[in-house]
């Protein structure tokens, strides 16, 4: 299976399926100019599981260097960015060199940012290893976190190819399956009523998220993302819909210092809040809440305060003229943007938190 991603700045393939990691060789062979050397960036979990597989596929066709960093979203940091740049310089990567991001969204974002800025930008290849990365590996957003906020520093930089070997997903722990599946649900909610209904009918437990049915859902999610990014690569308009659930989700992650909750689990809570903000989607929100509960998603962390969360939401990149921009749904599959004052949002969030606990 191949999905072609077309953005104004670049066209590239997403290979998706069992064992498609073998495509890496083909992609590397076809690069023009041929790379002087490769830099594989991975984290310790993924490295332990799949680095050897990837290195075997590359074989001795290319020279490669490997840097392995700790796992966890707090590693999407300036320190690691700097470490990767220093390593790249010490290994004499040049402008023909290629970065290979082997891992989930954390590695994809960090490695993409390293590639996007090393010598003003060199090429990179995404090898996503999480369900979540069906989202993060496509679309060209790269970056790192700043203590003041998530994803605050970054560039748009599209990969040469995305090689999504779904056999790599079998080792994901349950909370990471939930994390990634939340973004699949997001894609369905903002753009595809049928996909949402069929997922709700077929996914009764997270054990159902494997094999062909998972692959199909990922392909549909990627296509939805592609359609939006094609129309709005640099987020001047509709790309903002992809932030459904994210304004609050990011604030929750930030308040918890990116620990104890996964990105998708936080986004799931953000989506529930967004659905509660409009009468038309209240029932949809209640149904989603029940479904998420049976799938084992966490409930709202009670100790978080509405006012500190809203303070964080004000710093969101999407905030404008003091108003917080929220993505809401008019109905299933029909998103829209609504501005809120921080006072009104804080009131609504307080009662949402109260009801949730
Ligand atoms: P992650 O990369 O931190 O991976 C989650 C955990 O799973 C890590 O501990 C990792 O080591 C482990 N892991 C990864 N693959 C595995 C595998 N196959 N088997 C076993 N363990 C594995 O997190 P993520 O959820 O993939 O991505 C989240 C990040 O993506 C966040 O930083 C978020 O901001 C970013 N993101 C970016 C975009 C974008 O458009 N660039 C979109 C969505 C999310
Ligand atoms: Zn996300």
Q: How would you describe the overall organization of this protein?
A:
With 357 residues, this protein is α/β, with parallel strands linked by helices. The protein has two domains: 2-171, Rossmann fold (3-Layer(aba) Sandwich), CATH 3.40.50; 174-356, Dehydroquinate synthase-like - alpha domain (Dehydroquinate synthase-like, alpha domain). Helices cover 45% and strands 20% of the residues. The protein has 13 helices and eleven strands. The chain has helices at residues 23-29, 44-58, 78-90, 105-117, 133-136, 174-191, 193-202, 211-231, 246-255, 263-276, 282-294, 306-314, 342-356, and strands at 2-6, 11-17, 38-43, 64-69, 98-103, 123-128, 141-146, 149-156, 161-165, 324-331, 334-340. The strands form three sheets. It has a seven-stranded mixed sheet with strand order 1-2-9-6-5-3-4, with helices on both faces. It has a two-stranded antiparallel sheet with strand order 7-8. A two-stranded antiparallel sheet has the order 10-11. Helix 10 (263-276) packs antiparallel against helix 11 (282-294) and helix 12 (306-314) crosses helix 13. The radius of gyration is 20 Å and the shape is globular. The N and C termini lie far apart (44 Å). Nicotinamide-adenine-dinucleotide (NAD) binds at residues 43, 45-46, 49, 71, 73, 76, 103-107, 109, 129-130, 132-133, 135-136, 139, 141, 151, 168-169, 171-172, 176, 179, 263.
């Amino acid at each position: 299976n191949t999905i072609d991603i077309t953005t104004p700045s670049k066209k590239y393939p997403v290979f998706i399926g069992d064992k498609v990691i073998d495509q890496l060789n083909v992609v590397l062979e076809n690069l023009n100019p041929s790379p002087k050397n490769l830099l594989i960036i991975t984290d310790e979990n993924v490295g332990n599981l799949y680095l050897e597989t990837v290195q075997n596929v590359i074989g001795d066709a290319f020279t490669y260097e490997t840097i392995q960093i700790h796992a966890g979203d707090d590693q999407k940091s300036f320190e690691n960015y700097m470490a990767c740049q220093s390593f790249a310089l010490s290994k004499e990567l040049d402008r023909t060199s290629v970065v290979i991001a082997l891992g989930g969204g954390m590695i994809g974002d960090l490695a993409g940012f390293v590639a996007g800025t090393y010598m003003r930008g060199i090429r990179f290849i995404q090898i996503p290893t999480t369900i979540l990365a069906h989202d993060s590996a496509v679309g060209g957003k790269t970056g790192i976190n700043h203590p003041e906020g998530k994803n605050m520093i970054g560039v748009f930089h599209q990969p040469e190819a995305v090689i999504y070997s779904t056999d790599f997903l079998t080792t994901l722990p349950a909370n990471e399956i939930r994390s990634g599946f939340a973004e699949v649900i997001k894609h369905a909610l903002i753009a595809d009523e049928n996909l949402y209904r069929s997922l709700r009918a077929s996914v009764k437990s997270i054990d159902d998220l494997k094999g062909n049915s998972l692959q199909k859902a990922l392909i549909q999610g990627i296509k939805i993302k592609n359609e939006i990014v094609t129309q709005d690569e640099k987020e001047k308009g509709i790309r903002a819909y992809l932030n459904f659930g994210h304004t609050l989700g990011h604030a929750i992650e930030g308040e918890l210092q990116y620990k104890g909750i996964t990105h998708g689990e936080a986004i799931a809570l953000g989506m529930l809040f967004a659905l509660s903000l409009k009468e038309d989607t209240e029932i949809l929100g209640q149904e989603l809440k029940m479904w998420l509960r049976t799938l084992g998603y966490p409930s709202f962390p009670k100790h978080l305060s509405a006012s500190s969360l809203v303070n964080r939401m004000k710093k969101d990149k999407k905030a404008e003229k003091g108003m917080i921009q929220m993505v809401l749904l008019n109905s299933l599959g029909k998103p829209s943007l609504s501005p809120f004052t921080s006072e009104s949002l804080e009131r609504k969030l307080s009662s949402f938190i109260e009801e949730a606990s």
